[in-house]
Write a structure and sequence with these properties.
This is Probable transporter MCH1. The chain has helices at 7-13, 20-30, 35-71, 77-86, 92-107, 110-119, 123-153, 163-194, 201-226, 241-262, 268-282, 287-294, 310-314, 317-341, 345-364, 366-371, 386-411, 441-460, 471-497, 502-510, 513-538, 557-579, and strands at residues 228-230, 236-239. The protein is mainly α and 591 residues long. The longest helix has 37 residues, at 35-71.
Amino acid sequence: MPTSASPCVDRTLVAPPVDSDQASTLSSSHGYGSDADSLELDAALRRRQRRKKQLVRIGSLVSATLAALCAGSIVVFSLYAPKFQSRLHYTQFQVNGVAIAGSLSLYLPISVMGYVCDRVGVAPLALLSSVLFGTGYGLAATLYRKLDIEYNNLGKPHGPGNGWSYLLMMFAFVCVGSATCAMYIASVSTCAKNFGKGKYRGLALAMPITGFGLSGMWLSQFGTRFLYETNPDGSRGDVDVFRFFVFLAILLFVVGIFGTFTLRVVDEQNLIEEAIEELENSGLLDGSALLGRSDRGYGTAGLTTPAGDHESHRLLDPVKDGDARWKKNWVLNAETRQFLTDHTMWPFALAFLFMVGPGEAFINNLGTIIGTLTPSTSGLGEGTSAATHVSVFGVTSTIARLLIGTMTDLLAPAPETQHVQVFPNRSHHPSSPLKRFAISRVVFLLFFGILMSIGLIFLASGAVQDHADRFWVVSGLVGAGYGAIFSLTPLIVTIIWGVENFATNFGIIAMLPALGSTFWGLVYSAVYQAGVKESGSAKAGGDSDDDNFCYGKQCYSATFWAEGICVWVACLLLLWVWKGKGGWQQRGIVI
């Protein structure tokens, strides 16, 4: 009777195809059939596989960080927003209309894209972002060039007949916002799933999030230093918007294509199997459904597979792939239901909305805010520039994201599981050796939320009016708060509700700030335009070039007082979710 030889030995050491009797004879005669040799070869194979997987993880981390480092181009909108006023003769409402179109398309599709990301993969989203970025910035460059020549070189008035061009500009930024959403969720989801078990999962998740924050800084500096207009006297002027848009179209198209081939999630099926075991132990899922599924042929629900066909069915890739897809969707859908029915999720999402909305409105209108601080015929503040403060915002946002990733890994409690924490009052044992000095991630979130509110209130108080050199305090504090909030929120989602369904869960929360961005953008525009009318009525025979610009505290103060109070409300919501009745602490959730 033939003896079973190691598969590794047969594949590796026996070149021609042989049957089992020949394999047994060869293995015995050459001394390769011993259990020790077989175990050693298996161990070597497993080590090679682990190294290969680790290399794929690291490569995906690098690719995700590079993609995110370019993806945040929409953050620099305030760099060229004043040009839309001065060169294209847009009103503040029209400028905010374009900004809001980009913000809505950045947030609203994120739940759908997250759903696709979890169930289909990250590569399709990277490819989609490439196409949308190329289309959006290419169209915006064409429109800007055409309108700039018509209005400023040919003297063509801006009339109702050109309304179609404004709609196309809004469409272009819808494409840009959607592309940003796709590239961001693909990058962050890749790192969340690949490093969900790791000791430094906070830092791994912070890498692409930090890259996204840095993108605004380096893109604004690159645009103003290398893609600038030349003044009549030969000096360097403001950013050349047309060339900047062309540069972004090419860069982001290439980055998206690169991400399509390099962003990979390792051992995703193992992640699903572990999630099944965890959820079955919790009593949320009935394992009999999966057992029944495994005994059926793919696409033959209700029919029992004959016993003699089991072996052949296991060898059919379509059947195995079909069962794996069914099992994956089954688990992810169950986790989505668990997420949506968690009573703490909705106030947490609302707090995120109340914090991020003011931050989004601030960065979108940063350029025109600076213009209100000092009287200037160009509409820009003296002694400072939008590019400088986009960079300040980016630097403080980046520092906050990196600090959050590192400090929470070291100081915050870490649950042993990477899946859903669904067990009320269960005793979790944090893996951090600093348990006696653990600081909850909610404390970090509250701290940075208060920092953001201080920056907004400082601006609203008028302390910066006629002192544009103090504006760095505002952009720095708001940037730090904004960056920390965007770093901590996805991290909290992975820790409480697991990593396997991360893109869907975070997508549901992350689409809400579109409402905040839109609301506060409209509020700012209304206050700004009221200030324009007030300034216009105070002028006698003013220059028509200044008709769209506002100067003075009345242009922004009411808006930012309201935004600061809004952030305080968000902090109260977070405290209630964490410490209130039925909150995370009472349920024994490690956060």
